Amino acid sequence: MTRPTLVVVLFATVALAGGCHPRSAETRAREAAEKIKESIPDVEAKALAQHVTAEQVRRAQQGLVAAHEYLGDVNGTLDAVTVNSIEAFQRAHGIEPDGMLNERTQHLLEQAAHG
Predict the structure, then answer these.
(1) Cβ atoms of 110 and 63 closer than 8 Å
(2) Beta-carbon contacts of residue 73 (< 8 Å; ≥ 6 apart)
(3) 54 and 25 in one domain?
């Protein structure tokens, strides 16, 4: 047998002996994808659970409107639309886009609202 043929035969033998068939590979890939998905933190849920006052959220929404990052109502309600807008604002200003109204984000939003 030639060397390339021998390699193919050995690969096929190992694949068959190891029980490697399309379904098991697909199952392993699906399980790996689930593990990866579970390991990714839920940034939005964390941002929605942050402890901020309605007044802080209202001021942030005003800054987001001024920065053209938010089209919703300025109502002081921290919802998914507001969090997504905060994340977009943070990305635009070189801040980690975590949706959190930290001191730096609040300061920049206040500047946007007044400038």
Answers:
(1) yes
(2) 61
(3) no
CB 18 within 8 A of CB 10: no
What whole-number distance in Å separates Cα of residue 55 and Cα of residue 86?
Answer: 15
Please answer whether residues 87 and 98 qualify as being in contact, where contact means their C-beta atoms are separated by less than 8 angstroms: yes
Domain region containing 77: 44-114
- Long-range CB contacts (within 8 A, 24+) of 68-71: none
pLDDT digit string (tens) for 82-106? 999 999 999 999 999 999 999 999 9
Output the pLDDT for position 96. 93
The average pLDDT across 35-62 equals 88
- Tally of structural domains, the chain: 2
pLDDT at 22: 64
Do residues 85 and 107 both lie within one domain? yes
**Contact present, 61 and 75 (Cβ < 8 Å):** yes
